[in-house]
Amino acid sequence: MNPAGVARVTTGCSEAPVLRERGQREVFCGLTGIIWLHRKIQDAFFLIVGSRTCAHLMQSAAGVMIFAEPRFATAVIEERDLAGMADANEELDRVVTQLLARRPEIKLLFLVGSCPSEVIKLDLSRAAGRLNEKFAPTTRILNYSGSGIETTFTQGEDACLAALVPEMPEAPAGAPASLLVVGSLADVVEDQFRRLFDDLGIGPVGFLPPRSSTELPAVGPNTRFLMAQPYLAETRRVLEKRGAQALQAPYPFGAEGTTAWLKAAADCFGVDESRFTAVTALGRERAKRALSHYQQQLAGKSIFFFPDSQLEIPLARFLSRELSMRIAEIGTPYLHRQNLAAELDLLPDGTVLSEGQDVDRQLDRARAARPDLTVCGLGLANPLEAEGLTTKWAIELVFTPIQGYEQAGDLAELFARPLNRAARLEV
Ligand code: SF4
């Protein structure tokens, strides 16, 4: 058994060679994270400082959600040269002032940078400092970058949470050990985990991001943190800088992953074995039962992951170990070994791992492998479907609650559904 309580049946992929590619890539930029972050931090507002392209991306990516009062918007800064920068700053101040006058309930405003050259020239951290002088403490103004040059897709959340860490209060010296769960989770999943930690006698437990920006948990050398998402490398680094210590664990996908994730916290907080088993037994059994419905359909099927959300490695581990799927290739935009150590240990020997992307070469490998299921971004799905490959949109895996015991069946269903659809079309 490894420290997280998971039986190792393979020697894993900790030392396995990784194919590193640095070619053209097909991944959303970090602005996309706003779609789930604005729902999570309920008194925050995300003001994208960008171009019409950014506004269109957000509109189409979030277009399915209709809000009377949306909590994100784009300040369009375009066609200004360096001489026009003073105007751009004035324009930004005007937009923020107008917004906060109209929406006094906003307690935290993020200025989110993007990649048009007009925006790169703007110093958003200075702008945030200047606006803070005017609006803090009623409204705090922070900034981070969601630019497509610096971030892919889920890295937007990493940049946002890393910007929040300096705002977290200092845990008083001598405070009892506390647990911090790091990474956005759907509220329903957060509530389930909170109940499990309560039943295990682990506490106090904080979540980053919190539901309200005024409830940022304290952090300090007595904080132990569990990552709920694998793509938070910068957030981890800044938390460690504040003295918090990361607990190594696989991510809470499936019965096994969830148990191992909870066990890492239980071991750290001295929960005895019998209590751990008693608290987790029912959930684990329910998850296993839910997964058994998909076993027959998914076992033996091959799956190919294009790099997209950075969830690829934990998901592949779940699919191979709990549903007996065969892994053709796991592509991930970045492979953070520190964040994925416990996951790499659990992958089958010989798994093909690739980091970054050279999209044409990877498409060739996918065509040669002819996987039963391909997980990829929206841009690749249609062409691959036209070539007869069955695809799953990676973005759905980020938007759907998939962590924890109660969601294990839903997670398996997400992979079974496209295969069902393909089977029905064949008939
Ligand atoms: Fe496009 Fe850059 Fe705006 Fe993202 S940030 S939508 S990549 S222009």
Automatic annotation (TrEMBL):
<feature type="domain" description="Nitrogenase/oxidoreductase component 1">
    <location>
        <begin position="29"/>
        <end position="418"/>
    </location>
</feature>
<keyword id="KW-0149">Chlorophyll biosynthesis</keyword>
<comment type="subunit">
    <text>Protochlorophyllide reductase is composed of three subunits; BchL, BchN and BchB. Forms a heterotetramer of two BchB and two BchN subunits.</text>
</comment>
<feature type="binding site">
    <location>
        <position position="115"/>
    </location>
    <ligand>
        <name>[4Fe-4S] cluster</name>
    </ligand>
</feature>
<keyword id="KW-0602">Photosynthesis</keyword>
<keyword id="KW-0560">Oxidoreductase</keyword>
<keyword id="KW-0004">4Fe-4S</keyword>
<keyword id="KW-0411">Iron-sulfur</keyword>
<protein>
    <recommendedName>
        <fullName>Light-independent protochlorophyllide reductase subunit N</fullName>
        <ecNumber>1.3.7.7</ecNumber>
    </recommendedName>
</protein>
<dbReference type="GO" id="GO:0016491">
    <property type="term" value="F:oxidoreductase activity"/>
</dbReference>
<keyword id="KW-0479">Metal-binding</keyword>
<keyword id="KW-0067">ATP-binding</keyword>
<dbReference type="Pfam" id="PF00148">
    <property type="entry name" value="Oxidored_nitro"/>
</dbReference>
<feature type="binding site">
    <location>
        <position position="54"/>
    </location>
    <ligand>
        <name>[4Fe-4S] cluster</name>
    </ligand>
</feature>
<keyword id="KW-0408">Iron</keyword>
<comment type="similarity">
    <text>Belongs to the BchN/ChlN family.</text>
</comment>
<comment type="function">
    <text>Component of the dark-operative protochlorophyllide reductase (DPOR) that uses Mg-ATP and reduced ferredoxin to reduce ring D of protochlorophyllide (Pchlide) to form chlorophyllide a (Chlide). This reaction is light-independent. The NB-protein (BchN-BchB) is the catalytic component of the complex.</text>
</comment>
<feature type="binding site">
    <location>
        <position position="29"/>
    </location>
    <ligand>
        <name>[4Fe-4S] cluster</name>
    </ligand>
</feature>
<dbReference type="InterPro" id="IPR005970">
    <property type="entry name" value="Protochl_reductN"/>
</dbReference>
<keyword id="KW-0547">Nucleotide-binding</keyword>
<dbReference type="InterPro" id="IPR050293">
    <property type="entry name" value="LIPOR_BchN/ChlN"/>
</dbReference>
<comment type="pathway">
    <text>Porphyrin-containing compound metabolism; bacteriochlorophyll biosynthesis (light-independent).</text>
</comment>
<keyword id="KW-0077">Bacteriochlorophyll biosynthesis</keyword>
<dbReference type="InterPro" id="IPR000510">
    <property type="entry name" value="Nase/OxRdtase_comp1"/>
</dbReference>
